[in-house]
Every structure is written in C-alpha cells, then in structure tokens.
Amino acid sequence: MGRRIPQIVKMIDSAATTVSAGVRVSDFRNCILQIIGSPTANLKVFVKGALGTGNEFNDAPNFDVRSSARTEASAWDFVEVVDLEDGTAIDGDDGINISGNVMRLIEVNINSLDWLCVHATGIIVGTVTVVGSFTTNV
C-alpha cells in the first residue's frame, strides 16, 4: 500500500466576502475541506471547480466573475460536496451554510478537475477559515 502525503492549503481566512485563489488539483484524487466558523459566524461557503483555460488549458479561470457573466476565460461551476458528518450531498448552487461556532468536514469530488476554489459570501457577522487537504491514494 502506498503512502498518503497530503498537500494542505489554507484557502480562506476572512471576515469579508472572499474568493480564494485557484488551487491546482489535477494531480490529486481526494479533497477534504475543513470549514471553521467563528462563534458569531453567519455566512455561506461555495465550492467552485473548473478545467484549465488558455492555449494549453494550464491557466486557472477567473473565479471572481459572477456566474451570470462567465465566459470561456472564466469557465467555472459550483461543485456539489458531501458532508462527512452524515453523508448528505449539498448542491453546489446552494452552498454550505455556516452558522455559529461550527466546524464542517466536507468531501469534494475533484475527478478530472484542474482547479478548485472556495467563495465565502453573505457574511453578516463572524469569520470563516477554510483549509483544504489534497491527496492521492497510491
């Protein structure tokens, strides 16, 4: 059995609406996101995925673009995730609700995706931290 060597990335640590930088995930098979809300947190976190863009399809899309204004250079979509607490699928368009001092572990299906980012929005109060663990079972 092979060794699991994770790449750990802090994607967001913010008290304001934030879109993380794209993380290159094409070399990984598994993704777990740990989402931590402060005691007063009231917000939503969305997960976005994409294939590469540009001439060689190596570039990250512009994840900051509103979904209604996407083009070929900013082609991304919301990604469904699974809550590891109870196995519930959370539709990508709905996002993950964070309310109060909560910690969520979610699994993201990154099969054949090149890029992944997270987007915290609707922050009324509080802060959110999102940390990603990216691995490949060998």
The H-and-E topology, N to C, reads as EEEEEEEEEEEE
Strand order of the largest sheet: 1-12-4-10-7-8
What value does the Rg take, in angstroms? Answer: 15 Å
> What fraction, in percent, of the residue positions are helical?
under 10%
Q: What is the count of DSSP helices, taking H or I runs of 4+ residues?
A: 0
Shape: globular
Helix-strand category: mainly beta
The average pLDDT value, as a whole number, equals 90
The main β sheet shows up as: 6 strands, antiparallel
Distance between the termini: 7 Å
What's the β-strand tally?
12
Strand content: over 45%
Residue runs with pLDDT of under 50 for 5 or more positions: none
Keywords:
single chain, 138 residues, mainly beta, 0% helix
What features would you describe in this structure?
- The chain is an all-beta fold.
- Helices cover 0% and strands 47% of the residues.
- The protein has no helices and 12 strands.
- The chain has strands at 7-14, 18-19, 23-24, 30-37, 42-50, 77-78, 81-83, 89-90, 96-99, 103-108, 115-125, 128-135.
- The strands form 2 sheets. It has a 6-stranded antiparallel beta sheet with strand order 1-12-4-10-7-8, with no helix packed on it.
How would you briefly describe this protein structure?
With 138 residues, this protein is mainly β. The protein has strands at 7-14, 18-19, 23-24, 30-37, 42-50, 77-78, 81-83, 89-90, 96-99, 103-108, 115-125, 128-135.
Task: Give the SSE map.
Blueprint lengths: L6 E8 L3 E2 L3 E2 L5 E8 L4 E9 L26 E2 L2 E3 L5 E2 L5 E4 L3 E6 L6 E11 L2 E8 L3
Antiparallel strand pairs: 1-12, 2-11, 3-11, 4-10, 4-12, 5-6, 5-9, 5-11, 7-8, 7-10
